[in-house]
Write a structure and sequence with these properties.
Layout: H1 17-26, H2 38-59, H3 63-86, H4 88-99, H5 101-120, H6 137-183
Helix pairs in contact: 2-3, 2-4, 3-4
Length: 184
Amino acid sequence: MPIDMSAAKAPPSKRTPAAAKKAAAAAPVAPEPGAKSLNQQRYEGVMGVASLVQGVCLMTGLHADAMTIGKFFPPVAAEVANIADDNEAIAKPIDFIIKIGPYGALIAAGLPFVMQILANHKVVDASAMHGYGVVPPEVLEAQMKAEMMRMQADAMRAQQQAVNEANAAAEAYAKMMDTSTETS
């Protein structure tokens, strides 16, 4: 007769909660299939910071520096990530960057919006922000005016169509009335 162990419990741990937490943190965790390795995450975190620095270079007109970062920094970021694998002092700030990564993505996503507003008010030069998709405010103004004209033209077309339909309905009604009075 087989023994049913489904209700069996492990004996209580003699570790303190702090020691158990430390042991769990030290235990290697297998990454989920398709998940990025810690080294890859660190590389991307370092590259994210480099991208922000590159953006500042673009904003301030340091185009050669921006290009240098884009062209030559990726291998540096890879080596920093590799060093972080064995050096806790290097790993800590990079791991912090990884944790705030979504906020960095929000900053990166919002940067073109902020730069365009600043360019619209002549705080920054729009031509220096072209890499972010920023255009001179006159371009946006012309695009907005064109959109408004399109909307007005669409409204006029819709109004004219409604008038035509109303006239056709009135004509059909008049014919129907004429036909009904002739038969009466």
